[in-house]
Design goal:
The chain has 11 helices and 10 strands. It has helices at 11-27, 30-37, 53-62, 80-93, 99-112, 117-124, 223-259, 271-300, 305-330, 342-354, 359-370, and strands spanning 129-132, 148-150, 153-162, 169-176, 179-186, 192-196, 206-215, 217-220, 261-262, 265-266. With 375 residues, it is α+β, with helices and mostly antiparallel strands. Helix 5 (99-112) packs antiparallel against helix 6, helix 5 (99-112) packs antiparallel against helix 7 and helix 7 packs antiparallel against helix 8. It folds into 3 domains: 5-124, Acyl-CoA dehydrogenase/oxidase, N-terminal domain (Butyryl-Coa Dehydrogenase, subunit A, domain 1), CATH 1.10.540.10; 129-224, Butyryl-CoA Dehydrogenase, subunit A, domain 2 (Beta Barrel), CATH 2.40.110; 225-370, Butyryl-CoA Dehydrogenase, subunit A, domain 3.
Length: 375
């Protein structure tokens, strides 16, 4: 089925995106972010998950976590393009929250079928969740998981678990016999130990999670199939977060270039500054079009969703690196300081650049699809 005009980005999707931007502008300015996550510059500081739970509760009341939940599980079932628009605004605000992790989990659960409706209804009611499937080597290929399920209990360790300090549930991929299944388990269940990782991104948290005879509910027998179906949405939503953050970097840096003077002129007057900023804008536009193309494919061309999602994440990863480097460089000496807000976005973008695969990895998978090595 051909894609609709404007990627199917409806008036309802535009209103959701506009409302999100207005909400963050009124309730979460960048100086509040700086005070929340960057109050301690000590590199040896204890890793803690700083976030505004009261503000998150307002987002729950707005229904943001149930946007991707199918209507059959009491959600809104909005198109992926609408959800991507919302995630873009979350990235623009660099808002510390478990929304992206919960959306990723939602897309996986939705691919599981009716067996996961109970878990989906929990998310629709406000439960937050994240995926626990990556192994020690950093592979998120579900067949590489180090968690094993036997007699209804989980044992092993999941690594690189995103926003583990903010969520209520883990969706765990575990080997079961010769297959791989998905399990729904509370983060405070007996036998679970969460070890916070030290990461550069101050707006997120990450952990490795030990499972020792943890009782868990199986929600999907064929976990590989469900994760494979959901992976395009996972990559696309992260790419949407990246372009939102990159737009903040571009706008902030352009404003600085208009006000910072050197040799009696704004630095934006000089070609060495303004031309690279135009390059950042062009790269953002490329990534943004690929993101909405991928989101639209999820809604209308599912057979091409994986192909387009690889393109979107590859472009977004390069955008994250380029926009970050230009934003720091063009802020001059202050751009390298802890007090400068661009450091928050630089670190968030570096994390996003590698999360779920960098540009080279996605281009490799895209090549496999184009050359017919995978379906």
């Amino acid at each position: 089925m051909a894609q609709p005009d404007d990627y199917g980005f409806s008036e309802e999707a535009a209103l959701l995106k506009y409302s999100a931007r207005k909400f963050f502008k009124s309730n979460f300015p960048t100086d509040k972010l700086q005070k929340m996550v960057a109050d301690n510059p000590d590199s040896a500081r204890v890793q803690i998950s700083n976030w505004d739970k009261a503000l998150w509760q307002q987002l729950l009341e707005l229904g943001w976590t149930l946007l991707a939940v199918p209507e059959s599980a009491d959600g809104l079932g909005l198109p992926a393009v609408a959800v991507a628009g919302l995630v873009e605004e979350v990235g623009r605000a660099a808002f510390p929250c478990p929304l992206l992790a919960t959306l990723n989990t939602t897309y996986v659960l939705a691919a599981c079928g009716e067996s996961a409706n109970g878990a989906l209804r929990e998310i629709a009611e406000g439960t937050t969740a994240t995926l626990a499937l990556t192994n020690r080597a950093g592979s998120w290929q579900p067949e590489d998981t180090e968690v094993v399920a036997s007699e209804g209990k989980l044992n092993g360790t999941a690594y690189f678990v995103q926003d583990a300090g903010k969520v209520d549930k883990f969706l765990v991929c575990a080997r079961k016999g010769t297959g791989h299944s998905l399990y729904w388990v509370a983060t405070d269940a007996p036998g679970i130990t969460v070890h916070a990782d030290a990461i550069v991104d101050l707006t997120r948290d990450q952990a490795h999670v030990d499972f020792a005879d943890v009782e868990a509910d199986q929600v999907c027998e064929d976990g590989l199939k469900a994760l494979g179906q959901a992976f395009p949405a996972i990559c696309t939503m992260l790419a949407a977060d990246v372009i939102g953050a990159a737009e903040w970097q571009l706008q902030t840096t352009a404003e600085y270039a208009r006000t910072r003077t050197q040799f009696d002129r704004p630095i934006g007057f000089f070609q060495a500054v303004k031309h690279p900023l135009v390059d950042v804008m062009i790269q953002i536009d490329e990534a943004k079009s690929l993101v909405y193309n991928a989101a639209c494919a999820i809604d209308h061309e599912p057979k091409r969703a994986a192909e387009y999602a690889h393109m979107a994440k590859a472009s977004a990863s390069e955008t994250a690196a380029f926009a970050s480097s230009r934003s720091v460089q063009f802020h001059g000496g202050i751009g390298y300081t802890w007090e400068c807000y661009v450091q928050l976005y630089f670190k968030r973008q570096k994390h996003s650049q590698m999360l779920w695969g960098d540009a080279a990895w996605h281009r490799g998978r895209l090549a496999d699809i184009v050359l017919g090595k995978v379906s």
